[in-house]
Amino acid sequence: MAVDPTGAGLKRFLAEDPGGPVVMLNLLRFREGGEKSYARYSKVVGETILPRYGAEVLYYGKGSTALVAEDGREWDAVLLVRYPSREVFAQMVADPDFQAVAHFRTEALTDAVLQATAQVGG
């Protein structure tokens, strides 16, 4: 399963940019023991990298009871991160400091969804 953005995916992400801020939805499924590796990644990214880019974590929570999900399709965690723009997100992903810790995220996960969202209405 895919857990990291690809070059082609980032190009499409930027080409479809409606402008303005973007909230990225992260659905995370950890491999056994992966929470520890993800915590290392989150600490560095949350304390040093996100602030540098004007981004902020809006919500991080553990998955709980799934009311609608096929067996095995429950998510271990949900994360919402707001970025000033899609371009800023792409710049952050290319940042050498981000690249230096991204492997902790990759090692932590067996499956992930990383999806841009667009606010509906007001």
Question: How many structural domains does the protein architecture include?
Answer: 1
Count of distinct strands: 4
**Uncertain stretches:** none
Strand arrangement, largest sheet? 2-3-1-4
- Envelope shape: globular
- Structural class, from secondary structure content? alpha+beta
**Estimated helix fraction:** 40-55%
Termini separation comes to: 36 Å
Question: Mean of residue pLDDT?
Answer: 93
CATH class, named Alpha Beta
Taking all Cα atoms into account, the compactness measure Rg is 14 Å
| CATH-assigned fold name | Alpha-Beta Plaits
Please provide a written account of the structure.
The protein has a four-stranded antiparallel β-sheet with strand order 2-3-1-4. α2 (34-52) packs antiparallel against α4 (96-108). The protein starts with 6 loop residues before the first helix and ends in a 5-residue tail after the last strand. It has a single domain (7-11, 18-66, 73-117), classed as Alpha-Beta Plaits (2-Layer Sandwich), CATH 3.30.70.100. It is built from four helices and four strands, in the order αβαββααβ. The protein is of the alpha+beta class and 122 residues long. It has helices spanning 7-15, 34-52, 86-94, 96-108, and strands at 22-30, 56-62, 77-83, 109-117.
